[in-house]
């Protein structure tokens, strides 16, 4: 085989090298021609980077980190606070401690107030006593002033009373029949 090296490495023949050189020269010539055409049209590529105005801008086709894309979406929709509160509710045990988290759970967040339910009256009392500490700890997670109060609901041990299923149709009758 022509062009074989005694060590088993294929090397291009002089004919192939000449062809490669012609191809490279042709490519350089075509690139120069494309640049000249672009210059005539006024569409030369930029030589210096774009200046950022105000904040980070990106071209619509540029890739973006997933976390940054989610943050942009949350900010654009105004969902930052609800998502942060949902994160606190999801990490409730971690934030308030294992024992307190085992006996309580956050129910809602309305107008700066976190509504917490407890599984016994003793734990409800404990949460009421710890309310200022909980407000401070929750504000550390969410930002100062987000949580203003903690409201506690005790256990709801009995189901709500429902009216019976048996009904008597018709009028109630005269009022003096029981006497």
TrEMBL record:
<protein>
    <submittedName>
        <fullName>DUF721 domain-containing protein</fullName>
    </submittedName>
</protein>
<feature type="region of interest" description="Disordered">
    <location>
        <begin position="154"/>
        <end position="179"/>
    </location>
</feature>
<dbReference type="Pfam" id="PF05258">
    <property type="entry name" value="DciA"/>
</dbReference>
<feature type="region of interest" description="Disordered">
    <location>
        <begin position="1"/>
        <end position="64"/>
    </location>
</feature>
<feature type="compositionally biased region" description="Basic and acidic residues">
    <location>
        <begin position="27"/>
        <end position="40"/>
    </location>
</feature>
<dbReference type="InterPro" id="IPR007922">
    <property type="entry name" value="DciA-like"/>
</dbReference>
């Amino acid at each position: 085989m022509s062009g074989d090296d005694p060590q088993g490495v294929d090397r291009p023949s002089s004919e192939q090298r000449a062809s490669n050189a012609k191809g490279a020269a042709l490519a350089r010539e075509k690139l120069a021609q494309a640049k000249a055409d672009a210059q005539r049209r006024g569409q030369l590529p930029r030589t210096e980077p774009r200046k950022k105005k105000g904040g980070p801008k990106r071209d619509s086709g540029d890739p973006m980190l997933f976390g940054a894309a989610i943050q942009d979406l949350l900010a654009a929709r105004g969902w930052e606070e609800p998502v942060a509160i949902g994160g606190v509710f999801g990490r409730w045990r971690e934030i308030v401690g294992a024992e307190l988290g085992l006996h309580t759970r956050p129910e809602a967040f309305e107008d700066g107030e976190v509504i917490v339910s407890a599984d016994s009256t003793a734990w409800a009392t404990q949460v009421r006593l710890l309310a200022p500490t909980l407000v401070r700890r929750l504000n550390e997670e969410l930002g100062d002033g987000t949580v203003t109060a903690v409201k506690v609901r005790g256990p709801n041990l009995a189901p709500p009373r429902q009216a019976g299923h048996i009904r008597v149709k018709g009028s109630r009758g005269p009022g003096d029949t029981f006497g």
